[in-house]
Request: fold
Amino acid sequence: MRAIVIGGGIGGLTAAVALTRRGWSVTVLEQAPVLEPVGAGIAVSANALYALDSIEAGAAVRRPASIQGDAGIRRRDGRWLTRTSEAMARERYGASIVVLLRATLVGILVDLLPEGALRLGTAVTAVDAGTGTVTTDAGELSADLVVAADGIHSLTRRTLFPAHPGPAYAGVTAWRLVARRPEIEFGATESWGAGLAFGVTPLAGDLVYCYASDTVPAGGASADGEKAELKRLFGDWHDPIPQILRNVEPAAILRHDLYSLDEPLPAFHHGKVALLGDAAHAMTPNLGQGGCQAMEDAIVLAGLADRPGGLAAYTAARRPRTTKIVARSRAIGRLTRLRNPLAVALRDTAMLLGDRFTRSFMLRQLDDVLGWRPPTPPEPERAPQAHDGGPGTTG
Reply:
């Protein structure tokens, strides 16, 4: 059985590894000439760690990662609104959240692919769901399965579902950065102000990963540069945020407007094509589940794809779950966008009360997300095949 994976991001690579382990001959098509992961760091939560464990990648991910440790949400002045501990998360879910560079995670997944499976610098221009034919700038390829992991602006999604409205602007722009860690003690926090948020997560070594957001119209840019803009917005917030902003190199700051697929797709498959990750259910980063859900998708798809009616079963398994997570992430994002002082005060008070009466308040809200475990797939119907460089090409 031959599979073509469109997109060399985290979801696409996880799918390629998972399919290979189930005996598929896999080719990954990535239009970039070099794999340069979009973003800076990534938090891999318990559900995604179990997904990676199922393809024997979990241990490799944990080695270069930083365990998130105690975490929570604070006000801009540093007062805790809700918090939890690493020990409590581990006891509840059997694993904690680990944080590492996206480039490191991508490298681990690439190393698990057969030689020749990844084709860089190959742009996909058309997909035929009926025949499983993928047209690239180098010719045509055909397969029994096409996995569309081609991102939030997916060409495949637009081809399969042309009437779908596509991603909607979430109302915020976001910055991501990796900087030198300040020489003070701090843990993983997300701090909320009026329409603003700033997240801080230590990485292994002497680095720290941060993200920030502001409620502004789409398409904006900072006239004085992104570092100056971040210092203007967050320079007087609690430690270690000011120190981090002093340390960061301007070139290390990424800025992107945030979009999500607020209207669910009618299905995550059509013909021989399956969509996963942002192509299927792009979500805001407020739950930290974008990449994690893509990894879940990949494992479930690989376990079902060689079954009769497997792609329909994939839609049935993944669409309800990801639809709920997209909506919940968007709802949390709306809380961070509140600017009215009364609304902000009510939000903060509600979180303080919830945390005061239930110390596991923050974790309990995530039980159905972080408690996911990979299904045990049936054994492949076909014996594993050696990778032969992928489907043949013509043209």
Notes: Confidence is low (pLDDT under 50) at residues 383-395. The first helix runs from residue 10 to 21. The first strand starts at residue 2 and ends at 6. The CA atoms of residues 45 and 97 lie 4 Å apart.
